[in-house]
Design brief:
The chain is of the alpha+beta class. The strands form two sheets. A six-stranded mixed sheet has the order 1-2-3-4-5-6. The chain has a two-stranded antiparallel ribbon with strand order 7-8. Helix 3 links the parallel strand 5 and strand 6. The radius of gyration is 19 Å and the shape is globular. The two termini are 37 Å apart.
């Protein structure tokens, strides 16, 4: 575990040893990207990440970030959160810069992240919108409860033997970021 001084009295620390998981869980469970997430899942995600950063002010956790990476070609920055009382002081930017300059994450071909409201923060760290967002896809496994709630009634989703079957619609347009956001909002 290493630490770096950001701006007095902020400190960035690597690893999960100092992570206040009760606090981090409280933050993440109230976000738009992981509402209601279980604490066990937050802790498991941290344990299985290639890098976890915490920002601390006077010893109290004020920020959190984790990186998911193969440490060879790709990294995903996720769960970036700064406590409301500590925002606007450069903590998120400092954590992102610390992550992308980390010695175990050098030489990667691509770093990704997603945000609904902090594009300016990440742009200052060198991030920009995807060149070809239509090339990116994602899969969100759907639980049985969602099927029972009626999501299976969508026109391009059918069931065979009780399992979802997704059909490619001929002539369908490529998926856009707006489509992804709408899907996220419909949940």
């Amino acid at each position: 575990m290493t630490s770096a001084q950001v701006r007095p009295p902020f400190e960035i620390s690597e690893g999960i040893d100092r992570t206040d998981f009760e606090r981090v869980h409280g933050w993440l469970s109230g976000t738009y990207w992981s509402p209601g997430i279980a604490r066990e899942r937050v802790e498991r995600a941290a344990r299985n990440s290639s890098l976890v950063l915490g920002a601390y002010v006077h010893g109290v956790q004020a920020g959190y970030l984790r990186v998911v990476s193969d440490r060879a070609s790709f990294a995903w920055i996720c769960d970036v959160y700064v406590d409301e009382g500590s925002r606007g002081q450069g903590i998120a930017r400092a954590m992102v810069r610390h992550a992308v300059s980390h010695p175990e994450h050098q030489g990667l071909r691509r770093w990704l992240l997603a945000t609904a409201d902090a594009q300016g923060v990440y742009a200052e760290c060198g991030f920009r919108p995807l060149d070809n967002p239509e090339r990116f896809m994602f899969l969100r496994p759907v639980s049985a409860e969602h099927w029972e709630e009626g999501l299976a009634s969508r026109s391009n989703i059918e069931q065979e033997d009780g399992l979802p079957v997704f059909r490619v619609l001929s002539g369908a347009r490529p998926i856009t970021l707006e489509d992804v956001q709408r899907f996220e909002d419909e949940g």
